[in-house]
Amino acid sequence: MSTVEFRLPDLGEGLEGAEIVSWLVEEGATVARDQPLVAVSTDKAVVELPSPVAGRLGARRGVEGELIRVGEVIAVIEAVAAPAAADNGVPARPAATAAAVATATTTAAPGRPRAAPVVRRLAVELGVALESVAASGPEGRVLADDVRRAAARGAGPPAPPPAPLASPPPPPRPAATGLGQAAPGRHRLTGVRRRTAEVMAAAWSTIPHIANMDEVDATELLEARTRLRRAAGAGAGAELIGIVPLLVMAAVRTLRRFPLVNSTLDAAATEVEVHADVHIGLAVATADGLVVPVIHHADRRDLLDLATEVERLAAAARGRTLRREELTGGTFTISNYGSLGGARFSIPIIRPPEVAILGFGSIAPRPLVVDGEVVARPVLPFSVTVDHRVLDGDVVCAFSAALAATLTNPISLLL
């Protein structure tokens, strides 16, 4: 029997380390080769690292929430057989790249449902037995939405017996979305929440934000969605044609008219790079925090392609299955905070090095003056926030006016 020091592999994209999300094997337990050993979090994605050898987990180095640098020992394994070759105790397998790790995440121990750590945690929070959940993800993986549906159906384990009268009442059941839930007490900011805190604090303290807010009559926009769905008929993806893809398409069209808004700032070099392509970041609220996958080459996609990509990326964001390349390269961000319900106006914070962000509120009936009469119409509010180091108020107002004109005449998007 030999001892193998398992070191945190290079996860790619220049990452210097990762945060331990959860251990999947107890110390002293037997582990099979390629069995998921520990889940770690990069900026926005969670990956499960497989054991490089079969044996017994002798020691775990690091606790949940702790940062481990690439190359540091994360576990010591007493191998039942020596690896084919080793160098300084590190198994002679090829270095684990992000792609290799991503593949390994599809491996699960026999009888253990395949699910990302965040999904397992969500199942615990909602009181759902993961083994009873019907999986809809690739290769039989359980997704977060699967767990939420199971929770809605009451698929949890048998209810525990009532607590004695002298005991404090149990905490209320978390909301189905998992958003905004936390027990009383102090909590460390970890994973997505810590990364969001760092980026947003830096953005708010270094970027001079200016914003413009407006709203448009959404009557034609809603009508366009209905007509486009009807025109698509029973074709694949027709049901995906919603408001969001139309909003993305309208933003892309407007960015083409104002290319400086589709740029990134290198403050150290005092240079602005105006991008030839439009890569739209789409803010998605998840149980772990805000995740922003990127619709690459949004300017080259038709409406149905955009709708399909929006749906795919949103599902992957909630299931924490996004690849790192799907989280990088954005040139402009859209936040649809209206989808959370009730929101009208907000001031979205710019994601550096981008120089602008667009936020949409919820569509709701509101009074408008039409032909001299006050009438109730569906109204879509929106906010445009820009970096005042690069863009001035006149650009913000002109961009907003052009966007409003497109949204009130959405058929122009198809011309």
For the structure shown, list the relevant keywords:
4-stranded antiparallel sheet, alpha+beta, 415 residues, 8-stranded mixed sheet
List the total number of helices. 8
* Structural class category: alpha+beta
Question: Main sheet?
Answer: 8 strands, mixed
Mean pLDDT metric: 81
Shape: globular
Taking all Cα atoms into account, the compactness measure Rg is 24 Å
Helix content: 25-40%
**H and E order:** EEEEEEEEEEHHHHEHHEEEEEHEEEEH
Total count of strands: 20
Low-confidence stretches: 83-110
Q: End-to-end distance, in Å?
A: 70 Å
Strand content: 25-35%
Description:
The protein has 415 residues and is an alpha+beta fold. The protein has eight helices and 20 strands. The protein has helices at 98-104, 117-126, 144-152, 191-206, 219-232, 243-257, 303-319, 393-408, and strands at 2-7, 17-23, 30-31, 36-41, 46-50, 55-60, 67-69, 73-79, 86-87, 90-91, 209-217, 263-266, 271-274, 280-286, 289-291, 294-295, 332-335, 356-360, 364-370, 373-387. The strands form five sheets. Strands 11, 14, 15, 16, 17, 18, 19 and 20 form an eight-stranded mixed β-sheet that branches. Strands 1-8-6-3 form a four-stranded antiparallel β-sheet, with no helix packed on it. A four-stranded antiparallel β-sheet has the order 5-4-2-7. Helix 2 runs parallel beside helix 3, helix 6 (243-257) packs across helix 7 and helix 6 packs across helix 8. The protein is globular. It starts with a strand and ends in a 7-residue tail after the last helix.
